[in-house]
Amino acid sequence: MTDDTDDWVEQLRANRREKDRFFAEHRQSPIPPEERADFDGLDYFEPDPAYRVEATVERHDDPDPVEMETSDDRAVRYLRLVTFSFEIDGDSYVLHGYRQESDDSATLFVPFRDKTTGHQTYDGGRYMELEPERDLRDGDEVTIDFNLAYSPFCAFSDTFSCPLPPEENWLETTIEAGERAP
């Protein structure tokens, strides 16, 4: 591995240790309090730089609303702000980035399912968040790192309601990166 890859792997592992500490100790952890003493960390796929992909941005200046079902059978309204086009193993894919209609933060919500969903990963899908340093424009290139994919809080406790990835963000490939099923 190169020094850059070594640094990336160490940073990823440090982030995972920090998240495990939060889940084990913090009062806002999704792990029920009575289960925290036995919690010994989340299960992750090994870091894999092949799942850090460069994606081309298509910005939607007039974003379409998207109703996302939730884990407790409600619906929440998001806006489809961008489409990311990328390749994995020589095949082309797209994912959409969203923001809740009432939210004006720069963070893009990227929920997805893939062929690990319900087998190796949480059956409701996984999430990623992207925080661009500036407004994205058509043709911009961004890195999507599936090694940062995580299970929503509802994977750990029914007290949480989580949006489920819409069908347009179901990938017909296997993404063995990020968090495994709790």
TrEMBL record:
Task: Give a single Pfam family match.
Answer: DUF1684
Looking up InterPro entries in the UniProt record yields: DUF1684
Q: By what name is this protein known?
A: DUF1684 domain-containing protein
> Which species?
Halorientalis brevis
